[in-house]
Structures are given as C-alpha cells and as structure tokens.
TrEMBL record:
It holds the Pfam family Lipase_GDSL_2. It comes from Streptomyces lividans 1326. Gene3D superfamilies: SGNH hydrolase (3.40.50.1110). InterPro entries: GDSL_Rv0518-like, SGNH_hydro, SGNH_hydro_sf. This is SGNH hydrolase-type esterase domain-containing protein. Residues 44-239 form the SGNH hydrolase-type esterase domain.
Length: 267
C-alpha cells in the first residue's frame, strides 16, 4: 500500500541556469544527461536519515531546492512512499513536513537497509519508472543484519535487480557516514570501514556506460557532533551537507545541475 500524504503536489523544473559546472573531461560524454528533455525521475532509497521524521525538511527537500534551480531539464521525485517517520507512534505515518511543497515520493524507511530494499527495488523501479536512484544505505545492515561482505553482496544484488527493471538506470550511492556508534563501538567501526572499502570496489566493478554507477564522496566537513541532532540523524546543516554531496557528484560526473547553494537559513 502506498504511504501517501494528501493532497500531494508534483513539481518539475525546466530551468536552464547560467552557471559554470564543476566537471571533468568526460562530462559531455554519453554519461551526461543534461541535454535530454524527457522528464527525469529520481528515486531516493534510504534509511532513517533519508525518510526523516515529523517536523523536518529532510535532505530530499534540500536537494529538490537545488535541482529546481539548476537541473536544466524537467524532473520529479518518484517512489511508493511519501510519509515521514512519526517518532511518537514509531511508524511511517506523519505528513508533518517542515515544508511540504515539493514532490515527497521516496523509497526510504526507518530501520531499513540494503537487506530490505534489495527484494523491493526491481518492482519499484518498474512501477515508478525511475531513471536515477539516489541511495544512502548500510548503517542498519551493518548494525543489525549483515557483515561488510554480506552487505556488499546485497549491493551487487540491488544493482542487478534495479537493472532488470531498467537496463539504463543510474545509481548514485553514498558510503556509510561516520556516526556516534562508530565512535563508541570498535567492532562496528571496523565493519563500516571495511564495507566502505568494498563499496568503492563494487561501484567500480559494476559501473557501466549504459547504466552508470556513481560513488558519492562523504560530505566534506561532515561531523556528527554538529550535523546531526542525535549523533546519527541530520539536522539542518547535515541535510544541506548530504544534499550537497549528491548534487556535487552528479554535476561533476553526469553534468547535471550546478554548484550547490544552501540558500537562506530555514525559519
């Protein structure tokens, strides 16, 4: 069943801004998608850091603001879910976005990881007609379900399943970010470090000209002491840092959008 907030509003952008892209030599190659005029359909795939909780903007909203102003082609966000997590009821039932005026669709869930999303991704990509997957997963897997090697194997299965539904799907994936548990639990920290190393190899192995994979570097300067409200979940500055990391990687590698600007502080 679709987790929906009503009324839902769709937003697109066809703005072609006058900006200088920070890119590399291959930015104008077949990997570039900025000159395609079709509607570009992004889908967020993530855990509690991506779904967010009641009263938050989420980094999804921050990235939407950026793409709205710099994407250069029509786009929207897609997915089978729209809600935030309600920490009072411990369920994904809240529609209380700090700013609801953006396409809120996603595939993210509190306490979910590669372990949970891999079986869902083929049908979801197919039904939502997703073109680009923006993925931030792994913390839950390593903390509760699988070790680094098993988690990396799930990444490979996830990509294979997504490509079975859309052979030209693009996937941008962020490593597991440093959080409070990494500081407190040496074994967990070792698993996170090992998985992040395996993720680099996995992305390199699976990258394909028809279905590019993009490793999104961790946000520069990201610090769980100042960029989260509880050691894990992003606050306003953390939302901007994560959105900027994805935005910068897509601009540099795929020629999509321009330099990230956080805009004025939220009221």
């Amino acid at each position: 069943m679709r987790q929906a907030c009503h009324p839902a509003r769709a937003f697109t952008s066809a703005v072609t801004p006058s900006v200088t892209l920070r890119g590399r030599a291959h930015i104008a190659s077949t990997r570039s998608i900025v000159h395609d005029e079709r509607m570009l359909r992004f889908m967020f795939v993530g855990d509690s850091m991506t779904i967010g909780s009641a009263g938050e903007h989420t980094w999804r909203y921050r990235l939407w603001q950026h793409l709205r102003d710099s994407c250069g082609r029509p786009f929207t966000f897609v997915g089978p879910r729209e809600t935030l997590h309600d920490r009072v009821t411990d369920a994904p039932t809240s529609c209380a976005y700090a700013e609801p005026g953006f396409p809120r669709a996603h595939l993210a869930g509190w306490g979910e990881g590669w372990h949970h999303m891999t079986p869902l991704i083929a049908q979801t990509v197919r039904s939502c007609r997703a073109d680009v997957l923006l993925v931030s997963l792994g913390l839950i897997d390593l903390g509760f379900y699988t070790n680094a090697e098993q988690t990396a194997a799930n990444v490979r299965a996830f990509v294979a399943n997504a490509r079975s539904a859309n052979p030209r799907v693009r996937v941008a994936v962020m490593p597991v970010l440093h959080n409070i548990r990494v500081d407190a639990d040496e074994t967990f920290a070792e698993q996170v470090a090992h998985f992040n190393e395996l993720l680099v190899k996995t992305v390199a192995d699976l990258d394909d000209a028809d279905s590019p994979l993009l490793l999104v570097p961790p946000p520069p300067g990201y610090d769980f002491h100042t960029d989260t409200y509880d050691g894990t979940h992003p606050n306003e500055s953390g939302e901007h840092r994560i959105a900027e990391a994805f935005a910068t990687a897509m601009a540099e590698e795929w020629g999509l959008g321009g330099p990230y600007s956080p805009g004025p502080p939220s009221p």
